[in-house]
Specification:
- By secondary structure, this protein is an alpha/beta fold.
- The chain is built from seven helices and five strands, in the order βαβαβαβαβααα.
- α1 links the parallel β1 and β2.
Length: 189
């Protein structure tokens, strides 16, 4: 499971009238409520973070992992979208990522960018839109978990349906009744 995660407006509320606290690693402190909410999602789903933030290329993946750990978020693995050299919108970046990861495991998008409301419906259903002034909350974390769990349940139902379809299919029953139809020597030719 993946969390496509923005930082500004999600982990660091965007309050223009205040300067965010900068920690020793030269990155802004995360909101404590957002930290607890993200940790809840990770703990309950074992999801991997995929950074979508505009800051994603400012640090190595190892530095990002330390940034999260320093802020109290137990992350095992962090990935990121490719560098945005073409200055694509967040919507375009996510659409490009999806195009090349179409068979990717379950994911949720957590972002404050309202342009993501213009994503196609099948992707918009995976969107948890935060208020940029508030960031990620426990309520939104529960919503993100529900999206990830719903996808898992839907996939399990699909697997069960396919297994039932295959097991109920009588197309190959003749093999059970026509044992001598094919011998080992027929297969070697």
């Amino acid at each position: 499971m993946l969390i496509l995660l923005d930082i500004d407006g999600v982990m660091v509320p965007a309050k223009s009238w205040t300067v965010p606290e900068i920690l020793e690693d030269n990155f802004a402190a995360f909101n404590s409520r957002a930290t607890q909410a993200l940790q809840k999602i990770i703990s309950e789903t074992n999801a991997i973070i995929v950074l979508t933030t505009s800051h994603k290329s400012n640090h190595t993946l190892s530095e990002w992992q330390n940034i999260f750990i320093t802020r109290g978020i137990d992350v095992k693995n962090i990935e990121r979208l490719p560098d945005n050299k073409a200055n694509l919108s967040r919507k375009e970046e996510i659409l490009n990522w999806y195009k090349f990861n179409i068979s990717q495991e379950h994911f949720v998008i957590i972002d404050d960018d309202k342009s993501l409301n213009e994503l196609p419906n099948f992707l918009k259903q995976k969107l948890v839109l935060t208020s940029p002034l508030i960031g990620l909350t426990n309520y939104l974390a529960t919503e993100a978990i529900s999206i990830l769990e719903r996808e898992e349940e839907e996939e399990q139902e699909l697997r069960k349906g396919i297994q039932k379809l295959v097991s109920d299919n009588k197309s190959f029953d003749f093999i059970n009744y026509e044992e001598n139809l094919y011998t080992l020597s027929n297969l070697k030719r």
